[in-house]
Write a structure and sequence with these properties.
heterodimer; A: about 325 residues; alpha+beta; Alpha-Beta Plaits; 2 domains; five-stranded mixed sheet; two-stranded antiparallel sheet; about 25% helix; B: about 450 residues; Formate dehydrogenase/DMSO reductase fold; globular
C-alpha cells in the first residue's frame, strides 16, 4: 500500500527537481543517453542530431520517462554544464525524503551478494568495501553472527564535520556523499569515522581506463578517482530512479529493508513487501550500532536471533595478498 | 653586569662580538660537504616523491585502516619542534630571564626552519596535492584542518617578524663592519636593516615591537599545537578521544624543541668557538628547562595512560594492551623510559647538564619525541571499533615503506637547509642585546 504511495511521491519529487533545471536537464539527459557524452564512444553524435532537424528523436528524461522531441529543439549542453547539473542535484538531494535502512541480522547467512553488486556498481577493487559483511562476536560466550555494515549515513556525522573542503557532505534527504572532484585526499574523514565505513583510492581505480570517458556522477561516485575517498552512497542514483539500492535488491535472503522515514515505510529488497518502519523496529527490538557515540545512524539492525548453531563458517575473514593492497 | 666599562674595554668587547658573530658566516669549513649531503637526501626525496605522485599513495604502507602514518607523525613532530621559538624567546623573554638572550636567535631559527617545512610535510600526505588550493577555494571553517592551516600561516608570519626585527641593529652593524662581503649579501642587510640609525627613539620602538610580538606569539603558538592535537582529539577513536590532548601535545612540543635547541647550541659552540655565548651555564640552564618541561610532559603522560588503564573500558583497553604488552610495547616502553623517565633522572645531576652530556641526552630525547608521534598516530588506527575483515592481511599492520622514509628524510633535509642558510647569512649572536646588557650600546652603534 504505502509502497505505491511512496512511488507516486517520489515521482512527484522527481518532477519537481526536474522542473528546476527545466528543459536543460531533460535535454542534457537526452544528450547523455543519445551519445553526446560519448559514453558509447561516439562523441560527435550530438552534431548529427542537430543537422537532421525535422526528425523526432526519442529521449530519456531525468525521471526515466521515454519521450519524443523535435530534433531541432534539442540543444545539447556542454559537458561541464551537465556535470554541474549532476553535481548540484547530487549535492541537494531529494526533497522531502529521509532515507533509512533496516538490516535483519537474523536472516544474514553471509552470501555476500550485497558486497558483490555494490563493488560492481561502484567499480571498486576487491579490498574496497562500501558494504562489508563482518563476522561478529560480541562476547566470548556468545555465538558469532554476520553483520553487513554499510555507511550509517549518520544524522550527526563525524566525517562531514572534519572535511576541510566540503567534499563530503550531508544532503537534505539524509545521505552522506563524497564528491571526488573536490576531495583533496587528506583522509581526515576516514580517521573520524568510528565505523570504518570509508575507503580510499590508494591505487589507480580498477576501471580507470574504461571509465575515462564517463561523466562523473556524484550520486554513484563513478568514475572512482585515484587519491580520493569513496564510501557507501545508499545508491543515491538508484533512489533518484525510484529503485532500491544495489545491495538491497541483490540480497537473496531478505536481510535488507529500505525506505523513507518520513513515510514510515520500508520495503524489503527480496520480497518487495513494504512494512511500517516503526512497527518493524518496535516489534523486533531494532537498534542502532554504538548509540553511545551520538552519531545518530540511519541504519537500524534487527537482532541476530536464530543464529547458526553450531556456528559454521568455512570462509576466511581476510583476502589473499594477491588482492594487493 | 651593570659595572660600567671603560671606552677601551667597550671597544674590545664590541670587536669581539663582531668577530664571533661573523665567524660562523665566513668559516665555510665542512659547509659544502654538509650541504652536499643534504642535497643528496633531497635528490632521493625528489625521486621518492615523484614515484608517489605518479603511483599515488599506494607506494606508502598506509591502507584503509591505518590511513595516517609516518607523514602525519612527521607533521606533528615538525609543528612540535617549531614551538620552542615561542617558549624561549617569548615566554622566557617576557619573564625577564636574562640568560636566554644568546639562545633566542637559535630558537627562532629552529622554529622557522621547522614551521616553514611543516606546511610542505602535510602536502606530502595528501592524496591530491594538485587540489591544494581547494583549501582556500572551498575551505570550511568547521574543519580543524582549516584552523590548522590558518594558525600555522599566522605563526610563520609572526615567527618571521620575531626573527627579523631583533636582527635589525645587528644587520646595520654588520653592514658597516663586513667590508668584503658579496653584493647580494650587502643588499640583504641593507634592505632588512630598514635604515637603522641606532637612535634612542628607534631602540624604544624596537623594544616595544619585540615585546608586542612576544605577547602575540604566545596564544598563536599554543594554538598551532593545540589545533594539531585536535586533528586526533576531534574524532571518536579510542586513544585519541581524550580532552587532555591539547596540553599534552604542547608539553611534548616543549620537550622536543628544548632538545633541538640544545643540540644546535652544542654544534655552534664546538664548530665556531662560541663557548663565550653558549656557556656551560647556558647548558646547565637549558638542562633545567628540559627537566622542567619533561616533568610536565610526564605528568600529562600519567594522566593520559594511567587513568584509562585503571578503567580498561572496552575500546581503550584494546588500545592500551597494544601499547603496554602488544605489538607496540617495545617502542612504547623505550620511548617512555629511555626517552623520558631516565633523562629526567639523569638531568637532575649537575654532571649530566654539562654540554656534551646534555647534548647526548637531548639527542635521545629528540629521537624518542619523533617515535612518540608515531605511537600516537598509528596504534589507534589499528584498532577501530569494528573488526578489520575481508581485506588483505597487510591491512592489520603498518611499517613505513622506503618511499615514506625518503620523503620524511627529505623534509628534515629541507628544514636543516633552511636552518643552515639562516645561520650562514645572519649573525647567530644577538650582538646589540648583549651590548645593551653591558651598557655599551653607544659604542656598538658608533663603531665602524
Amino acid at each position: 500500500m504505502s509502497d505505491k504511495k511512496s512511488k507516486n511521491n517520489s515521482r512527484r519529487e522527481f518532477l519537481k527537481i526536474g522542473s528546476l533545471f527545466g528543459v536543460g536537464v531533460a535535454a542534457a539527459g537526452a544528450a547523455a543517453y543519445s551519445g553526446f557524452a560519448s559514453q558509447d564512444g561516439h562523441g560527435t553524435s550530438g552534431e548529427t542530431i542537430l543537422s537532421e532537424s525535422e526528425q523526432k528523436i526519442k529521449v530519456l528524461t531525468e525521471d526515466g520517462t521515454l519521450a519524443e522531441i523535435k530534433a531541432s529543439e534539442l540543444t545539447p549542453i556542454k559537458k561541464d554544464e551537465y556535470t554541474d547539473a549532476l553535481q548540484s542535484q547530487g549535492r541537494e538531494g531529494i526533497a522531502g525524503k529521509h532515507w533509512a535502512m533496516v538490516i535483519d541480522l537474523s536472516r544474514c547467512r553471509n552470501v555476500r551478494a550485497c558486497m558483490a553488486s555494490c563493488q560492481n556498481a561502484h567499480h571498486l577493487r576487491d579490498e574496497q568495501h562500501h558494504i562489508n559483511v563482518l563476522r561478529m562476536q560480541d562476547d566470548r560466550n556468545t555465538e558469532p553472527y554476520f553483520m553487513p555494515k554499510p555507511c550509517f549515513h549518520c544524522d550527526n556525522p563525524p566525517c562531514t564535520k572534519v572535511c576541510p573542503v566540503d567534499a563530503t557532505f550531508k544532503r537534505q534527504d539524509g545521505i552522506v556523499l563524497i564528491d571526488n572532484e573536490r576531495c583533496i585526499g587528506c583522509r581526515f574523514c576516514i580517521a573520524a569515522c568510528p565505523y570504518s565505513a570509508r575507503v580510499f583510492n590508494w591505487f589507480e581505480p580498477k576501471d580507470a581506463e574504461k571509465d575515462e570517458e564517463l561523466l562523473y556522477n556524484v550520486e554513484l561516485n563513478v568514475p572512482q578517482k585515484k587519491g580520493t575517498v569513496s564510501k557507501c552512497l545508499f545508491s543515491a542514483d538508484r533512489l533518484r530512479e525510484g529503485k532500491l539500492p544495489y545491495c538491497v535488491s541483490a540480497c537473496p535472503n531478505g536481510v535488507y529493508y529500505f525506505g523513507d522515514l518520513n513515510e514510515d515505510a520500508v520495503t524489503n529488497g527480496t520480497s518487495g513487501e513494504t512494512v511500517r518502519f516503526s512497527e518493524l523496529i518496535r516489534q523486533n527490538a531494532g537498534y542502532t550500532l554504538m548509540p553511545e557515540l551520538g552519531t545518530k545512524p540511519n541504519v537500524y539492525y534487527l537482532p541476530p536471533k536464530n543464529r547458526m548453531f553450531p556456528f559454521e563458517f568455512k570462509g576466511k575473514t581476510t583476502l589473499d595478498d594477491e588482492h594487493h593492497g | 653586569m651593570s659595572e660600567s666599562l671603560s671606552k677601551e674595554e667597550a671597544k674590545i668587547l664590541v670587536d669581539k662580538y663582531a668577530e664571533d658573530a661573523i665567524r660562523p658566516m665566513k668559516n665555510h669549513k665542512g659547509f659544502i660537504l654538509w650541504m652536499g649531503f643534504l642535497g643528496l637526501v633531497l635528490v632521493i626525496f625528489a625521486y621518492a616523491y615523484f614515484l608517489q605522485l605518479r603511483d599515488g599513495l599506494s607506494v606508502t604502507a598506509m591502507r584503509d585502516y591505518v590511513s595516517w602514518g609516518l607523514y602525519i607523525a612527521n607533521f606533528v613532530f615538525f609543528v612540535a619542534a617549531s614551538l620552542v621559538g615561542m617558549l624561549i624567546s617569548a615566554v622566557l623573554g617576557l619573564l625577564n630571564q636574562k640568560w636566554v638572550k644568546p639562545i633566542t636567535r637559535v630558537s627562532e631559527i629552529i622554529a622557522l626552519g621547522f614551521v616553514l617545512i611543516a606546511g610542505l610535510v602535510i602536502i606530502t600526505d595528501m592524496g591530491r596535492p594538485d587540489r591544494f588550493l581547494n583549501l582556500f577555494l572551498h575551505g570550511r571553517l568547521q574543519s580543524p584542518i582549516v584552523w590548522d592551516v590558518t594558525v600555522i600561516i599566522t605563526y610563520t608570519a609572526i615567527s618571521t617578524l620575531l626573527f627579523l626585527l631583533p636582527l635589525i641593529p645587528d644587520l646595520a652593524f654588520i653592514k658597516r663592519r663586513m667590508k668584503d662581503m658579496p653584493k647580494w649579501q650587502y643588499h640583504i642587510y641593507n634592505v632588512l636593516s630598514l635604515g637603522w640609525m641606532g637612535t634612542a627613539e628607534q631602540y624604544k620602538l624596537l623594544h616595544k615591537s619585540i615585546r608586542m610580538l612576544s605577547i602575540i606569539i604566545v596564544p598563536v603558538a599554543l594554538s598551532i599545537h593545540t589545533v594539531t592535537s585536535w586533528l586526533f582529539a576531534s574524532t571518536l577513536r579510542s586513544g585519541w578521544d581524550t580532552t587532555i590532548f591539547g596540553p599534552y601535545f604542547v608539553a611534548g612540543a616543549f620537550v622536543a624543541g628544548a632538545a633541538a635547541v640544545i643540540i644546535l647550541m652544542f654544534i655552534l659552540r664546538s664548530n665556531y668557538k662560541l663557548e663565550d655565548y653558549f656557556t656551560d651555564h647556558h647548558f646547565d640552564m637549558m638542562g633545567r628547562l628540559l627537566v622542567l618541561v619533561s616533568l610536565l610532559y610526564a605528568y600529562f603522560n600519567i594522566n593520559e595512560f594511567l587513568v584509562p588503564a585503571y578503567k580498561m573500558r572496552s575500546g581503550e583497553a584494546v588500545h592500551l594492551y597494544t601499547l603496554f604488552q602488544g605489538a607496540y610495547a617495545g617502542l612504547f616502553w623505550s620511548v617512555q623510559i629511555i626517552g623520558m623517565g631516565l633523562p629526567i633522572i639523569f638531568m637532575m645531576f649537575k654532571e649530566w647538564r654539562k654540554p656534551a652530556n646534555l647534548t647526548f641526552i637531548a639527542i635521545i630525547v629528540l629521537i624518542a619525541a619523533f617515535i612518540k608521534r608515531i605511537i600516537i598516530v598509528v596504534p589507534t588506527l589499528l584498532h577501530p571499533y569494528l573488526p578489520i575483515q575481508n581485506v588483505p592481511e597487510k591491512f592489520h599492520q603498518y611499517f613505513p615503506t622506503w618511499i615514506e622514509m625518503a620523503v620524511t628524510a627529505g623534509a628534515f633535509a629541507m628544514a636543516l637547509i633552511i636552518i643552515t642558510i639562516l645561520l650562514k647569512v645572519f649573525p647567530v649572536i644577538p650582538m646589540w642585546e648583549l651590548a645593551e646588557e653591558k651598557g655599551i650600546t653607544e659604542e656598538f652603534e658608533k663603531q665602524e
